[in-house]
Amino acid sequence: MPLADGTADVYVHQNAYHQHFSADLSAEQVALDAATQRPFNTAALTEGSGEPAWRTTPSWFIYPELDLAIPAQAFRFMAERAGARATVEVPGASHALPASQPQAVADFILQAAAAD
């Protein structure tokens, strides 16, 4: 949806939501998620964010193997650039990783929290 400032609010089309965003969630969950999704603004793709925290703060990186929104090689690049102390690719997981694999995400957070 175009906005007056030249940016746009972007949604994932409901008919494509399951396949492209959350293939490993139930059809019932996806229908709810697709219908209630919040938009993101295109400015998020172009505006700077300031000094990245990963330059001064230790980081850990978990990402889904089958994300169709962000390529796995982009995740790998970001993890390497950040000097991630640990990197985990979750097999078979979609972009909706925290919803589809909550235990894997929670375990990884606990691992990171216990690291130092």
From TrEMBL:
It holds the Pfam family Abhydrolase_6. Residues 17-107 form the AB hydrolase-1 domain. InterPro entries: AB_hydrolase_1 (IPR000073), AB_hydrolase_fold (IPR029058), Sec-Metab_Biosynth_Hydrolase (IPR052897). It comes from the Bacteria. This is AB hydrolase-1 domain-containing protein. Gene3D superfamilies: alpha/beta hydrolase (3.40.50.1820).
